[in-house]
Amino acid sequence: MADTREERFMRMTLELAIENVKSGKGGPFAAIVVRGDEVIASGTNQVTTTNDPTAHAEVSAIRAACARLDSFQLSGCEVYTSCEPCPMCLGALYWARPDHIYFCATRDDAAASGFDDSFIYDEVVREFGKRNIATNRILPGEASRPFDAWEIKEDKIRY
Description:
This protein is an alpha+beta fold and 159 residues long.
C-alpha cells in the first residue's frame, strides 16, 4: 500500500531529523512547512551549533517559511514536525496559525532520550513568585503605556 501524502511528508521530516543528528548540527528534530504539495521551508534543531536556545526545528521552519511567503502567518499551510512541539514551539506555531500540525514522536518519547521539557509545562501554570526562575512584576501602574500607544496608532497591522 502506498504512503499517504501526510506519511510522505512525515518521512521526509524524519529523514531531515536523522541527517541533522548525523551531521552534528543539532538534536534529533526537524520540521517542514507545506502548502498543497510543495515544501515551503524546512528547519532542523541547531541549538548547540548556533548557541541559540530558540533554534528549534519548528521555530527555524516557521522563520524560513514566513520569510519565503512574505507573511507573518502560515494560513493555508501545514507543519510536519518529527516530535510533538515543546511549549515554546507550540506557542510559535499558534502565533503562526498554520491550518494543521502533524507530529511523530511524543514528548514522552523525547524525554526518554534526554529531551524532557515537562518542567516547562509545570512552570507555566505556577504563580510568578513560585517559579524556579525568579519572576516578579514591577511598575504595574505603567503596564498599559505600550498598549495605549498601540491603540492610538492609526497604521498598525493587527495580528
